[in-house]
Amino acid sequence: MKGFKDHINLIENYIEELLKGLNGNPVYDPVKYFLKLPSKRVRPLLTIISSSLYNNDNEYSLPAAISNEIFHNFTLVHDDIMDSSLIRRGKDTVHVKWNLNQAILSGDIMQILAYKCLESYDSETQKKLIEAFNDTAIKVCEGQQLDIEFESQNNLKFDDYIQMINYKTAVLLASSLKMGGIINNASETDLKSLYQIGLNMGCAFQIQDDYLDLFGDQNIIGKKIGGDIIKNKKTVMYHLHKENSSIEDSNILDEIYNDSNIQNDKKVSNIRSLFEENEIDLKTRQLVKKYTTKTDEYINGLNIDTSKKKYLIDISNKLLSRDF
């Protein structure tokens, strides 16, 4: 990520050394493969940045940072299995490159490795880290379950969707920031603020991701416009439309979603027009602004010197601007 080259190098070097330390058992082959795939390393970067608010020694934060990264990648391996995904970051998914059993087992060991990274901290700090980690892991699983259930439901409320993205996406950003504070004995007030920064940052990012999938520039986002609609994913805009449109327009939206005979381009075009007619594009941008403003408020509320908040503000801006 631009502007964080030194931090990224620390992360990549630490991961490289960790992988070198694994023995030759084949269970580690997918782990080595997956952790070397191209990645922005956002979550470990957040841990390093939050730690740097209190401590200039970035290497001290690396075990916690890498713990978050390995756990995130573990969830991706298992997500790919559940979604029957063939490609991850431009490469074969683990269950495609190896097999289903290997992917499950290697994903499991990645989760164990994530916990082992925390062993380098003193017992009291380690206890607090594991408590935060366990809370996050449970919420991520709950979020994934909600996501699975939502695929077959049409009567969801907007708040249900927000809870799902909070649990599936935002809590890991929140935990990554909080853990950087935990290892430096930050105050409870700051720990709560760091967590809220991650939650709101994650929501803003996911909602904007939903928006850009339909209203973004294909050359900038690097994927075909309307991919979520083609896959029948009910993004934030689907739920906003349900909350803000007439019964007639709501029924039209579901008819288009459920029409298996309509061509993809026409499906995307029709839903885009329906969203524009009901100003769902505008409402989505306003929602991104709402969560971005909350993020800024919590950053400003941290009880630390303003100059130290620069990297935190920078990464928040870069995530939303897609300046990777």
What does this molecule look like?
The chain starts with a helix and ends with a helix. It has a two-stranded antiparallel ribbon with strand order 1-2. It has helices at 5-20, 29-35, 42-52, 62-83, 94-97, 100-116, 123-150, 158-182, 188-215, 218-221, 227-230, 236-244, 247-258, 264-277, 280-301, 310-321, and strands at 87-88, 91-92. The chain is mainly alpha-helical and 324 residues long. 40% of the residues are buried.
Q: Identify the strand order in the major beta sheet.
A: 1-2
Helix tally? 16
Total beta-strand segments: 2
Domain module count: 1
Element order: H for helix, E for strand:
HHHHEEHHHHHHHHHHHH
**Could you name the CATH class?**
Mainly Alpha
pLDDT averaged over residues: 92
CATH superfamily: Farnesyl Diphosphate Synthase
* Morphology call: globular
Percent in strands: under 5%
Radius of gyration: 20 Å
User: Could you please say which CATH topology applies here?
Assistant: Farnesyl Diphosphate Synthase
Topology:
Blueprint: H1 5-20, H2 29-35, H3 42-52, H4 62-83, E1 87-88, E2 91-92, H5 94-97, H6 100-116, H7 123-150, H8 158-182, H9 188-215, H10 218-221, H11 227-230, H12 236-244, H13 247-258, H14 264-277, H15 280-301, H16 310-321
Antiparallel strand pairs: 1-2
Notable characteristics:
324 residues, mainly alpha
Summarize the structure.
By secondary structure, the chain is mainly alpha-helical.
